[in-house]
Write a structure and sequence with these properties.
With 390 residues, the protein is of the alpha/beta class. It has helices at 3-10, 23-26, 39-48, 71-85, 118-127, 141-152, 173-181, 216-230, 238-248, 252-266, 274-282, 291-295, 299-310, 319-327, 334-346, 374-385; strands spanning 61-64, 106-111, 158-165, 187-193, 208-210, 350-354, 366-370. The chain is globular and about 65 Å long.
Length: 390
């Protein structure tokens, strides 16, 4: 945050005594236009994409690193800036240092959590290249492929940034490559994920760009910048920010989830004190499923999870009774909710935990525990669905 931003923040009329000034700045699923202290990664990505400055297709690549290391944030910001800086397809590119001319390059970001099928993937790529709405009904994958081929024919390269490869419900890098090869066009891809290259079938010879976790000092700076932008003056002490950063062990997503949870506990007119920070951290399990992955689920699953986190722990067992309690709050049957819970357990979103203090005959029942940051999820859910979690 620069000096002008800091001054403008303090001058906001009527905001000086509010706890939350900017909800986006506190969200673990929002990416700032200028990621904190990731200049070295930006340079490495620019080196990898260097060919686009001559209007040529860059090599494919795999950006790999642990969760919460800024992979998505950096690529989102970089793609947006490159799209603004480079001419659109069909226009000549002239530079004084590189000379010559070339067609423009297009960039498309695809979230594989939402574009899980071949149709959805091709639809997302086409939708990122055209201004008109792309139909979903009455068309098949072949029709979308045809429209996509016509769109890119004779134009410059198209770089597809495919985020979240190799998660339990997303495809691997080889599938991304196959889906683009099924379309006749000048495509290059940059896959983003956590697993090792071999675990997501990255084709042999593909350049791999590794990302290291944030250092404690850098994560502290990141949290301080988010808190400065999102909270009222003096709402959170720097010692509390340092404590969250140390606890999060280099994972910005975990740290921001704890921060948002602490703010949720504090309330609109409160202060984020030590008790609120403790509650925010306690609401983040280890390991923690990213909030973006949870919110990318179908709406009925997300609402099911919102009802789950609203239950007391002893109301989440056994699974059948838990499902019945949730169904009573939604327009769904208990059997449908129970199926959702088993599917979510298979995907690692929730976990079935045996109740050890069970008394009586038979096998001990299972309790359904969330594997995501519950307080942060509740805040994000209430904002996205514009209705409180029941």
């Amino acid at each position: 945050m620069n000096i002008e931003d800091r001054i403008a923040r303090r001058r906001r009329t009527g905001d000086r005594h509010r706890l939350v000034l900017d909800e986006d700045a506190l969200s673990p699923v929002w990416h700032p236009p200028e990621p904190v202290d990731r200049g070295a990664l930006v340079e490495r990505l620019l080196d990898h994409l260097d060919a686009v400055f001559d209007g040529e297709r860059p090599p494919n690549g795999y950006l790999r690193g642990p969760g919460g290391t800024g992979k998505s944030a950096v690529t989102a910001a970089l793609v947006d800036r490159l799209s603004e800086a480079l001419p659109p397809p069909g226009e000549a590119l002239f530079t004084t240092t590189r000379g010559g001319s070339a067609s423009g390059v297009s960039f498309v970001r695809v979230d594989l959590r939402e574009a899980d099928s071949a149709f959805e993937f091709a639809h997302a790529v086409l939708d990122g290249l055209v201004s008109d709405a792309v139909p979903r009904s009455g068309v098949g994958t072949d029709e979308i492929h045809g429209r996509l081929e016509r769109r890119v024919r004779g134009g410059g390269p198209v770089v597809v940034v495919a985020d979240a490869v190799g998660e339990p419900v997303t495809v691997d890098a080889a599938t991304v490559a196959d889906r683009l090869e099924a379309v006749d066009g000048p495509f290059a891809w940059l896959a983003i994920g956590r697993p090792a290259p071999d675990d997501v079938a990255v084709p042999e010879g593909t350049p791999v760009i590794d990302v290291e976790p944030y250092s404690r000092a850098t994560l502290t700076d990141l949290l301080a910048a988010r808190a400065d932008a999102g909270l009222g003056q003096g709402a959170l002490s720097h010692s509390a920010i340092r404590r969250i950063a140390e606890w999060a062990d280099g994972d910005a997503g975990v740290a921001l989830s704890a921060l948002l949870g602490a703010v949720e506990v504090a309330g609109e007119d409160g202060a984020v004190d030590d008790d609120a920070v403790d509650a925010g951290m306690a609401a983040v399990p280890w390991p923690c499923v990213p909030a973006g992955r949870v919110l990318a689920l179908p709406a009925n699953r997300v609402r099911t999870l919102a009802c789950l986190v609203a239950l007391d722990p002893d109301e989440r067992a056994p699974v059948g009774d838990c499902a019945a309690r949730i169904a009573g709050r939604l327009d769904l049957t208990a059997s449908t909710v129970e199926r959702f819970l088993y599917e979510l357990a298979e995907a690692g979103i929730v976990e079935r935990v045996r109740v050890d203090d069970h008394e009586g005959p038979g096998r001990p029942p299972s309790r359904v525990d969330p594997r995501f940051a519950t307080l942060a999820f509740r805040a994000l859910f209430n904002r996205r669905f514009a209705t409180p979690a029941v």
